[in-house]
Write a structure and sequence with these properties.
single chain; Spore Coat Polysaccharide Biosynthesis Protein SpsA, Chain A; two-stranded antiparallel ribbon; 14 strands; globular
Length: 328
């Protein structure tokens, strides 16, 4: 693998022997994404790595998304397939990802949300990282939080690294990059148990057999936190390589699942659902990591009793100020 700098991004030329180039199954799930879907698909077609298949999974769209997806599958029948649930029903994000996963043929799987985009070297670079680190079951990296796609942007584009957090307004790196993490370390250090930013779903790549071996996604999570479920399973079942490289552009807009859930107040209910799921999953799997269990207990108390937690936090802040004055 060789690289050269070009502007603000590093441009890499990665050459693998033809027989060593594995198939990557790219899975795009979408629901009424007619404004963005074509751009997402084009970012897959534009990949420098050409051994891919694209599965377009329609979760019951009622806009022009179906027509857009079908047009690409008709133009590229050897590379692109259109999938939908029985009777074109809406079954949620987890069920849609599982439909794509069951239909995939690649050694690796990479998910892309219908409103996001990949950088052209995303697949090529991640396949090379898997070749360098065969023990890894997942590769992830930094994400561009993409405001500049719109003429009147509501913020500045910014690169967010896995494990990044904020301390008094300053970005802090909670993780070392370009290394493998094993066991429960990422579960403890990344959101929602830890402080660090979790990997973007559109920036990950997984070994397909491992995703299948852990049971895939949980269909009960129709929207938010379905990505946390699968990452939790992966964190506890293999090594994860965390790269410094930026793999995807995460489109920022008011119609995104995250912003809609926050605006409607559903995100807190979904967070509580995830914590209940995690508690049961850890118990069923026999994980006894004391640090994880303590973190989960605190998070569940905070989620279930927010007013008590706020009062406790204010009390702790008062005690810290008193202690600071005593030391001065």
């Amino acid at each position: 693998m060789t690289g050269r700098k070009s502007g603000s991004r590093a441009c890499w030329t990665i050459t693998l022997p033809r027989e060593a180039k594995p198939l990557v199954s790219c899975i795009v799930i979408f629901l009424d994404e007619e404004k963005y879907l074509g751009e997402a698909i084009e970012s897959v077609i534009a990949q420098s790595y050409d051994d891919w298949e694209l599965l377009l999974v329609d979760d019951g769209s009622i806009d022009r998304s179906e027509a857009i997806a079908r047009s690409y599958s008709e133009r590229f029948p050897a590379k692109i397939r259109y999938l939908t649930h029985e009777r074109r029903s809406n079954r949620g994000m987890s069920a849609s990802r599982n439909l794509g996963l069951r239909s995939a043929r690649g050694e690796f799987v990479a998910f892309l949300d219908g409103d996001d985009c990949w950088y052209p070297d995303k697949l090529e670079r991640q396949v090379a990282l898997f070749a360098q680190h065969p023990e890894a079951v997942m590769v992830c990296g930094a994400t561009l939080y993409w405001h500049g796609w719109q003429p009147n942007a509501d913020g500045d584009d910014r690169v967010v690294h896995v494990g990044q957090s904020t301390n008094e307004g300053e970005a802090v790196r909670e993780l070392d990059e370009d290394r493998l993490y094993e066991g429960t370390e990422l579960l403890r250090r990344l959101y929602p148990l830890g402080k660090g930013v979790t990997p973007s779903m559109s920036g990950n790549m997984f070994r397909r057999d491992v995703l299948l071996s852990v049971g895939g996604f949980d269909d009960s999570f129709r929207g938010l936190f379905e990505d946390q479920v699968i990452r939790t399973k992966i964190y506890l079942n293999g090594a994860v390589f965390v790269s410094h490289y930026v793999f995807d552009r995460y489109r920022q807009h008011d119609e995104s699942c995250f912003r809609v859930s926050k605006a409607t107040g559903k995100s807190e209910d979904l967070k509580r659902q995830f914590f209940r799921w995690l508690k049961q999953y850890l118990a069923d799997a026999g994980y006894r990591d004391r640090a994880v269990r303590m973190q989960l207990r605190r998070k569940m108390l905070r989620a279930n009793y927010p007013s008590i937690h706020r009062a406790w936090s204010r009390g702790q802040a008062v005690l810290r100020r008193v202690a600071d004055r005593g030391r001065s």
